Amino acid sequence: MKFFIDTANLDQIREASDLGILDGVTTNPSLMAKEGITGTDRVLKHYVDICQLVGEGDVSAEVIATDFEGMVREGEELAALHPNIVVKVPMIREGVKALKYFSDKGIRTNCTLVFSAGQALVAAKAGASYVSPFIGRLDDISTDGVELIAQIRDIYDNYGFETEILAASVRHPMHIIQCAEIGADVMTGPLSAILALLRHPLTDSGLAQFLADHKKARENA
Ligand code: G3P
């Protein structure tokens, strides 16, 4: 399972990257705004900075336009920034057309704002490289987000679709584990959810005991 971090914060990307297990980054207009990144030039430069931080990993950069021509114009500009840019396109009618256009041109895409199996099926048929079901936002409205990942896994496996399932809107470590059990190709989440996977109280108490025993043995030697 690939691990992406869902942020536009360079410090958090650097911290995740330093762990050595980061495979990519996803951003969205809200995350860019949260970092105060506005204006076309600053936005484009920020994407390049992120690409340079993650090395080989994919970096999703979202179009703002909602019409086909605008999405194509923005997406081509984003894709030209760096070979690792993946153009993020919303699951709307014009977006589906744009996904097909980019797919035909060899530009990689991430179909975002996916909340149903039907939307995921259409995204795959349009040739999306990644599909992003938002599991946390489904949980927020009392709908099982992880169950959607399982449904999409079944559908894609039935037909051999190559679109990678990118579980998005991940909120906590159990989301990651459940998505891994189902076979999601990628998860994107906050640094806190990734770091939470590492922690276990028995690891901490066990290490404390090992170090204490080692110290005692040295003192008695
Ligand atoms: O980047 C898309 C998605 O991961 C958003 O997550 O936490 O805003 O629902 P969230």
Please render the helix and strand layout as text:
Blueprint: E1 2-6, H1 10-19, E2 24-26, H2 29-34, H3 40-54, E3 58-62, H4 68-79, E4 85-90, H5 93-105, E5 109-114, H6 117-125, E6 130-133, H7 135-140, H8 145-159, E7 164-167, H9 173-182, E8 186-189, H10 191-198, H11 201-220
Parallel strand pairs: 1-2, 1-8, 2-3, 3-4, 4-5, 5-6, 6-7, 7-8
The protein binds SN-glycerol-3-phosphate (G3P).
Q: Can you offer a commentary on this structure?
A:
This protein is of the alpha/beta class and 221 residues long. The protein has one domain: TIM Barrel (Alpha-Beta Barrel), CATH 3.20.20.70. Helix content is 56%, strand content 17%. The protein has helices at 10-19, 29-34, 40-54, 68-79, 93-105, 117-125, 135-140, 145-159, 173-182, 191-198, 201-220; strands at 2-6, 24-26, 58-62, 85-90, 109-114, 130-133, 164-167, 186-189. It has an 8-stranded parallel barrel with strand order 1-2-3-4-5-6-7-8, surrounded by 8 helices. Strand 3, helix 4 (68-79) and strand 4 form a beta-alpha-beta unit. Helix 1 runs parallel beside helix 3. The longest helix is centred in the last third of the chain and has 20 residues, at 201-220. The radius of gyration is 20 Å and the shape is globular. The mean pLDDT is 97. The structure holds SN-glycerol-3-phosphate (G3P). The site of SN-glycerol-3-phosphate has 9 residues, from helix 7. SN-glycerol-3-phosphate binds at residues 6, 26, 28, 134, 136-137, 168-169, 188.
